[in-house]
Specification:
The protein is 35% helix and 23% strand. By secondary structure, the chain is α/β, with parallel strands linked by helices. A hairpin with a 2-residue loop joins strand 4 and strand 5. Bound molecules: S-adenosylmethionine (SAM).
Length: 358
């Protein structure tokens, strides 16, 4: 199988390169309004933001920042297929304006926009990084009544374009091959994710230059787009990220054998993407191997402790719990080439040599 990945370095409020109704899935993490690191970004897009911030008018600044994002959401509505899914990773912001500490609920504002346009709202996911530091101190003192709750989670908001499910031919081989395991379904479709670790961060832990790039880009962990792609699209689909950053969504699409398209204002971020893509084969192997290994461990325990299973994987021979899982097939990246921000990858069936006898 072949996939293509295209990046446009321009403002995504105009995605005229893309036809209407051409995208199967959108996954993104925009600049978060009212988080200070994005003040200059929003002020550059609209001078009134700067003025509102200087005047200490938080509510006006918040609204103006969202109006900037909404230009992009409007384009997303145009390019997404009917029944296609939009996933938005967003955190709320807390901030002191003129000594008055307050919440700016970004997820509410974005949800309200999607509800008022041609989308159906679906249940969302809350995720937070695992923390077990014993001396963690959450902020604002021990004296009631003026302490504040600390925000430790982010949202993945999920919407479907239109009001009916996406239509896929009933015999689509790609759809059955893209199935996920029963135990993955239980974990991925839970409304709280507490196990998200920054896989992508491990890629370059020795590269200081990349670390500072990453801080500037506010990259999300690879596991987030990887799961969402596997949950809401099938092999060969087109995945769009209109706030591409360092290209984590494209990296996840490559590993998941989907096509991807990204829009990004800052061409500098291509450097970090190119560094990551050099390790794509190893990363792809690690993720596939870990998924299948995890399944084998799970299924052995299940058969021992719960009951025997009836079905067997066609491609990998291990037992699976349901009939929907029998066609699961993973792919490996074999090679890639690049031509002017356009990446082409070849993929072949992932071989899994597990010696356990079933
Ligand atoms: C939170 S970051 C995305 C990080 C990304 N998910 C990653 O893993 O690297 C948001 C990105 O959107 C870009 N951006 C903001 N407004 C944009 C616009 N209108 N069009 C294209 N890119 C934009 C910013 O330059 C920034 O890199």
């Amino acid at each position: 199988m072949k996939t293509t990945h295209r990046i446009f370095f321009k403002d995504s409020f105009d995605m005229s390169e893309l036809e209407s109704n051409s995208i199967d899935l959108m996954i993104t993490s925009p600049p978060y309004p009212m988080i200070e690191m994005w003040d200059s970004h929003f002020s550059n897009s609209n001078e009134e933001v700067k003025q509102a911030l200087e005047e200490g008018n938080g509510k006006i600044a918040f609204n103006l920042m969202h109006e900037e994002l909404e230009k992009v959401w409007k384009e997303v509505e145009r390019v997404l297929k009917l029944g296609g899914i939009a996933c938005i990773n967003i955190g709320d912001a807390t901030r002191k304006i003129r000594d008055n500490f307050q919440l700016f609920p970004n997820h509410v504002r974005i949800t309200s926009f999607f509800q008022n346009n041609d989308f159906t709202e679906l249940p969302c996911i809350l995720w937070r990084k695992p923390t077990n530091i014993p001396n963690k101190f959450l902020g604002s003192g021990m004296l009631p009544p003026n302490a504040y709750v600390t925000l430790e989670h982010e949202y993945i908001l999920i919407f479907r374009k239109g009001n009916s499910k996406r239509k896929i031919p009933s015999k689509s081989e790609n759809r059955y091959n893209s199935a996920f395991f029963w135990e993955e379904r239980n974990k991925w479709f839970s409304d709280i994710w507490k196990d998200i670790r920054g896989i992508s961060q491990n890629l370059n832990k020795n590269n200081i230059n990349q670390k500072s790039f990453r801080e500037r880009s506010a990259a999300f962990p690879l596991e987030i787009p990887y799961r969402l792609i596997n949950m809401f699209s099938i092999y060969g689909d087109k995945v769009l990220d209109p706030f591409w950053g360092t290209g984590t969504t494209s990296l996840a699409a490559m590993i998941s054998t989907r096509n991807s398209i990204g829009y990004e204002l800052l061409p500098d971020f291509l450097e970090i993407f190119k560094e990551n893509i050099k390790k794509i084969k190893q990363l792809n192997f690690n993720i596939n191997h870990s998924r299948l290994n995890h399944h084998v461990k799970f299924i052995n325990k299940y058969r021992k402790e719960v009951k025997d299973t009836k079905y067997k994987s066609i491609h990998y021979e291990f037992p699976v719990i349901t009939k929907q899982e029998i066609n699961i097939l993973l792919y490996s990246v074999i090679n890639y080439s690049e031509n002017r921000n356009n990446f082409i990858l070849n993929h072949e069936k992932f071989q899994f040599n597990n010696k356990i006898d079933y």
